[in-house]
Write a structure and sequence with these properties.
By secondary structure, the protein is an alpha/beta fold. The chain has 11 helices and 17 strands.
């Protein structure tokens, strides 16, 4: 059977002040009228059906996700007591799926990405799922065809083509400088790493066992408790002591070097919406390049984004700024400094202003 796993444990700190600890980015309707996790669910539901969607999230958000996604069986929305990055999340989902079907194939998706061409996305996912049926020991990933030389993403370097527009991945590359990113673009052999993965449950668990033995050993009691009345207690006892490591670093980079990763390129109109600048690129602009959500007036202003919930915002004679207004906070930033918003949340912690987090 095919299972869809939604990873929904992120904090979305670069989307402060809209994204907060108790109501992070994936639970918000930042783009469009539905929340980001609702959009993700509707996108991947045709691949697996709603009864085989598994959501891994933080304990503070599980109840809200159950409200937002009522079609998913409540037991499939699993709460992590603490966040431990993506490797434990992936292992937990694979263990749960394997209990239902020893031959389970998983698609793993971040909860907070935007896809504008969902048909292309699903078709590429199906290509990888089909490829794994004939080569069950491989891991699969979707590579986003780059549209510009981005320095904020990791890249996947492809090598030989296998079949049906699927390649063997040669290497997972760190975020490049601008010169390297341009070379990647020109070669046509590199794709953005979107963190969208496909694998059999037994295959990824075997990779975790071989590459992350400490994680594997510590998660055995959790595996044994799945489906039992003791599951929540075991999670609360074991999970905080798990090593915090990403699946990319812990498994995918090593599997890529060993020739065990398949990559299928796609151009589905993908964005990780990783910052307010990313949202600026998604919102339609007026003739002066201004973008808005809410009540906004602009005079002699260019290249701005205003995101406001209630009050009118007026801009006069300002260029390249982003303004975000919420009930209790206002953010004003140069749009080219959007990656630094998380520093605001760090200063709020330092100054004891945790009520704004």
């Amino acid at each position: 059977m095919i299972f869809s796993v939604i990873m929904a444990g992120g904090k979305g700190t670069r989307f402060w002040p809209l994204s907060r600890e108790n109501h992070p980015k994936q639970l918000l309707s930042i783009v469009g009228d539905t929340t980001m996790i609702q959009s993700t669910y509707e996108r991947i539901k045709p691949l697996s059906g709603s009864d085989r969607v598994i959501v891994i999230t933080g304990s503070a958000h599980a109840d809200e996700i159950k409200k937002q996604l009522p079609e998913i069986p409540p037991e499939n929305i699993v709460a992590e007591p603490v966040g431990r990055n993506t490797a434990p999340c992936v292992a937990l989902a694979a263990m749960i799926a394997q209990k239902q079907d020893p031959n389970a194939v998983l698609g793993v998706y971040p909860a907070d990405h935007v896809i504008t061409n969902e048909e292309v996305f699903r078709n590429t996912a199906q290509v990888l799922i089909n490829a794994l049926k004939s080569d069950s020991k491989k891991l699969g990933t979707m590579g986003i065809v780059p549209t510009y030389p981005e320095t904020g993403f990791g890249y996947i370097h492809r090598s030989a083509k296998t079949l049906n527009n699927v390649y063997t991945a040669k290497e997972f590359c760190e975020k490049p400088d601008i010169g390297t990113a341009k070379r990647y673009m020109e070669s046509g052999e590199y794709y953005w790493n979107a963190g969208v993965f496909f694998w059999r449950a037994d295959t990824i668990l075997n990779e975790i066992k071989n590459n992350l033995p400490e994680l594997w050993e510590k998660m055995k009691p959790i595996d044994n408790a799945i489906g039992s009345p003791d599951f929540a207690d075991v999670m609360n006892e074991i999970y905080p002591d798990l090593p915090s490591i990403s699946i990319d670093y812990g498994v995918m980079e090593k599997a890529g070097k060993a020739g065990n990763v398949l990559v299928a390129p796609a151009d589905p109109g993908w964005s990780d919406v990783g910052s307010w600048r990313s949202l600026y690129d998604l919102v339609p602009a007026d003739d002066a390049g201004n973008r808005q959500r809410g009540k906004v007036i602009t005079v002699n202003s260019h290249g701005t984004l205003v995101y406001n919930e209630k009050r009118l915002v007026a801009l006069v004679g300002v260029d390249d700024v982003i303004v975000v207004e919420t009930d209790d906070a206002i953010l004003v930033l140069n749009k080219n400094q959007a990656q630094n918003v998380r520093e605001v949340t760090e200063k709020l912690k330092e100054q004891g202003l945790t009520g704004y987090l």
